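Progress against Task 2.4 (sequence-to-structure conversion) is shown through the following example record, which the project officer requested during the mid-term review.
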Amino acid sequence: MLFNKSTHLTCCDQCHKPFEINIKSKYLGEGIVRRYFCCEHCSAMYTVAYINNSIKSRHKKLNRIRRQIQMTQRMKVHKSKLLEKEERLEELSKAAKKLMLENKEEHDRLVMIYE
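Structure tokens generated for the chain above:
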């Protein structure tokens, strides 16, 4: 599937016609939502993501960590505190990577169930 970022157009793998991406959500039960879009010409469906409560929770935590990283990067510190700042950035980065890995594992588990 080809994707053009500036116009949100993609080309369908099935009919090979271009179409604009319109993301939809479908509740699957048990707190699970499928995010997807369909080709407007042939109705081929493309799943973007599966989301459940634990993925949402980790995503919120990840956004908080990203804001903390940005704030820490902007902080002006004396040379004597530079090492502390770098250690804090490393700690936040590791926490973010852990959350992203956990979300990927949970998403992969949902893909195995629903596809």
